[in-house]
Write a structure and sequence with these properties.
By secondary structure, the chain is of the alpha+beta class. It is built from 16 helices and 11 strands. α6 runs parallel beside α16 and α10 packs across α11.
């Protein structure tokens, strides 16, 4: 393969609220680009922007290690699956995966997911207008997770704030540490109680999970719960917001889905391809290598922009367009390889059920023309910051 150059992009460019133009340029020039920050980074860091590059990295955990995630998040989250490799990752993932079994997901849909989003919709249905991101959508997944863990619903607002603060911990470590510690203080008596007496909830499942005589220790339990809250609440609600925005802004799509709810799974999948909420994953290079012909040294950090890979024109024609008719091809909205998102069946279910209930309970839903047209925004974490809508008063 040819030895391509690796041009630099500044941190400011890379962290823009609307990075798709930059990502498109990178895909068309060099699939690997150095991040320039004036020497402040601990290691040289590169952006991987293409489908082929992302696939190469995510399917080769020996060359591209996930341990870099432990360096960052472990400072305040403790041991998390994202930062594990090899046998330890496999065994811990196996211990946790049983909690997301199909029978449990089906039960959660009927006992938690649908009742929670229905109640949230009914709480605003009499008004005729709302800003859905703050008033409804952001509250939905965190209430589901609290219900899964048998945590009182009135405590869900503090868990949502902890999730947001943990997500921001990579930029503000003090904020991340404070949120992680507050969450542990809250959860410790619950974990101890579930160890003594098993309940019918997610915490009980992971505390008592056993494979080949192994169980998660307390630090691993708290690490998983600290990971579940941001991944399962903030990422999911942003994805739901992006999907609803697509429905309301794509010509003819609202009328179509109101006539045929069976297209909701396709809307979910196209949203995850078009603009997934968690835009990138991190890896560290274990040996000198080439990514699509671009040289990357051992020890370098990688930001694999899955959101850019999902718009790679070589993979998806007219990739910037939200299009339900495009030929079916797998996306990597939930990653790829051994670290593919463990909770993706739950996220898909929450997106599908959430959209279904909002469309059913908020009649004649439309964007509010009195407010600026909403857009999906953000660099690492994307979604519409605001979603002002109108609907018929119940």
């Amino acid at each position: 393969m040819a030895d391509h150059s690796t041009p630099s992009q500044s941190v400011a460019e890379f962290d823009a609220e609307q990075p798709h133009d930059l990502w498109r340029t990178l895909r068309g020039t060099c699939p690997v680009s150095r991040v320039s920050d004036g020497g402040a980074m601990v290691r040289p860091t590169y952006i991987v922007s293409t489908w082929a590059g992302a696939k190469q990295v995510l399917l080769d955990p020996e060359t591209f290690s996930s341990s870099i995630n432990a360096e960052g998040t472990a400072r305040f989250m403790g041991p998390v699956l994202l930062g594990m490799d090899g046998e330890r990752h496999r065994s811990r993932r196996q211990l946790i995966s049983h909690a997301f079994r199909a029978s449990q997901l089906a039960r959660w849909e009927e006992t938690l997911i649908r009742p929670i989003i229905t109640a949230l919709c009914d709480s605003i249905a009499h008004r005729g207008s709302a800003e859905l991101m703050e008033e409804l959508i952001s509250r939905f997944p965190v209430q589901v997770i609290c219900g899964m863990c048998a945590i009182p619903s009135q405590d869900s607002p503090r868990f949502l704030q902890w999730a947001k603060d943990i997500h921001r911990g990579m930029r503000d470590e003090g904020m991340g540490r404070a949120a992680a510690e507050a969450m542990r203080i809250y959860l410790e008596p619950l974990v101890e109680a579930r160890r003594r007496e098993r309940g019918d909830d997610l915490i009980s499942d992971i505390v008592h999970a056993e494979v080949d005589g192994e169980r998660l220790d307390d630090e691993e339990v708290f690490g998983f719960l600290r990971l579940l809250l941001p991944a399962g609440s903030e990422s999911t609600y942003r994805a739901i917001g992006s999907a609803l925005l697509a429905i309301l802004s794509t010509p003819g799509l609202y009328a179509r889905v109101m006539q045929d709810r069976s297209i909701l799974p396709s809307i979910v999948e196209e949203t995850l391809r078009w603009d997934v909420s968690n835009s990138m994953v991190s890896r560290v290079v274990t040996r000198d290598t080439l990514i699509e012909g671009c040289p990357v040294p051992a020890g370098a950090g990688l930001r694999v922009v899955t959101n850019s890979a999902n718009r790679d024109e070589k993979r998806f024609a007219q990739s910037d367009t939200f299009d339900l008719e495009r030929p079916a091809k797998p996306h990597i909205g939930f990653g790829l390889g051994p670290h593919q998102c463990l909770g993706q069946p739950l996220a898909r279910m929450e997106m599908r059920v959430g959209l279904d209930v909002m469309l059913a309970r908020l009649n004649n839903l439309s964007l509010d023309p009195a407010h600026p047209s909403p857009v999906v925004a953000g660099a690492s974490f994307r979604g519409p910051p605001k979603l002002h809508v109108l609907f018929e008063k119940a």
